[in-house]
Amino acid sequence: MIFRTHLAFAFLSGLIFYDYFGLSVWWLFFPAVLIASGIPDIDEPKSKFGRKLGFLSEILNFIFRHRGIFHSVFLGGVISYFLWAFNASLGYGFFIGFLSHLIADGFTLQGINFIYPFKQLRLSGFVRTGGKLESIIYYGILVIDVLMLIKFLS
Hints:
By secondary structure, the protein is mainly α. The protein has helices at 3-17, 26-36, 48-53, 55-64, 73-86, 88-105, 132-153, and strands spanning 112-113, 122-123. The protein has 7 helices and 2 strands, in the order ααααααββα.
């Protein structure tokens, strides 16, 4: 998936789970969700976050390869735990955003190894990254985001 789809899906996930966790610090939760939704792609030099990191992203890609450790639920869990120890809204927000990225990439043709490096649990689907179907999915999620945001704010 491309960055905008990850953002839209992460925001939707955040809207769904915010009340579930009984959180009250939305101004920490939602930025954590949105930032975390891009973190798994820092090892891809052509991604939005990878371009911001420049050479560091190329080093990470060389060492870990794209969709390796940065696309593992374990890394997201470890980072989320440390953020949660500081503030629950940050921890939960980061985990929701990170996990939403993994779930979305699990629908792509490339797929992901969800529990890398411990075992092979490959998830892959039928969506071509950046393709027409992804655009349709993105706009559909965007409409749902707007409707849920209206409900959230009322």
